[in-house]
What we know:
It is built from two helices and twelve strands; from the N terminus they run αβββββββαβββββ. It is mostly beta strands. It has one domain: Distorted Sandwich (Coagulation Factor XIII, Chain A, domain 1). The strands form two sheets. Strands 3, 4, 6, 7, 9, 10, 11 and 12 form an eight-stranded mixed beta sheet that branches. The chain has a four-stranded antiparallel beta sheet with strand order 2-1-5-8.
Amino acid sequence: MSYCSYQQFSLSFLALLPFVSAHGYLAQVVIDGNNYYGNVPNAKPVPSIIRQINDVDPVMGASNPYLNCGQDAQLASLVANANPSSQLQFWWDGGDGGHWPHNTGPIMTYMAQCVDTTCDQYDSTNAEWFKIEETGLQPGNMVWYQQNIMNGWPANVTLPPTLAPGQYLIRHEIIALHDAVAMGGAQFYPSCTQVNIQGDQSDVAPASDEVTFPGGYSDDDPGIYDPTVFNRPVQYTFPGPPVVSFAAPVSNTSSPTSSNSS
Ligand SMILES: *[C@@H]1O[C@H](CO)[C@@H](O)[C@H](O)[C@H]1NC(C)=O
Ligand SMILES: *[C@@H]1O[C@H](CO)[C@@H](O)[C@H](O)[C@H]1NC(C)=O
Ligand SMILES: [Cu+2]
């Protein structure tokens, strides 16, 4: 049901295309210069900090249980050390091994504490997620930052400088909105990465800023069902809770903490 971005093509041209739907997955995370590779969906897994999914296709529907960490996400066996203000890069690949195939929609990053256990054992079904970053449109509101992912660049995220230490999941998510002019057409691509934050800082998210997944989104949220997503300049409202007050400062340049609301 979900093609990548064919909707502007004529039906006759569509009929000539091979039935390849590339979609994609989180292939690699870089933490302060250290590379951590994820597993290709469905491949025999090697140790990783990224929870492996079993399908590059998007998660569809705001109440889908796979909205949590991605399609049938499995516990990952490793947990990487990170620090307050660590610089992260998230590298997304297309399911065909090429570049990420989408360019319309937001990129958002959430975190949740791995409660009462380490993240390699933590069942995130009831995790309380708080948002540390949301990246939408580049200045001018014509082009999404997601275009940079399609061009072969990573997403750049800075961890909150004062977040309390401990084991956390980082839920880095791309939403592809090219079919979101219809209710239920938004494509969700969640991912979960396991980290252990060092230090003795003390900020924690207030419960009022936390959501579960599913739970944090509705199919009729303005940023998920978006009939005007192709009207430029784009007016966009991010779904989910607000970014926590102690998140790293927003920079509207393209690196390394690119984050810009419309
Ligand atoms: C960043 O935001 C500031 C304040 O809104 C603005 O003056 C500046 O032009 C912006 N920079 C870019 C590259 O858009
Ligand atoms: C992340 O930073 C790199 C290097 O500055 C930049 O080329 C890239 O476009 C940024 N990513 C996004 C999604 O803007
Ligand atoms: Cu796709």
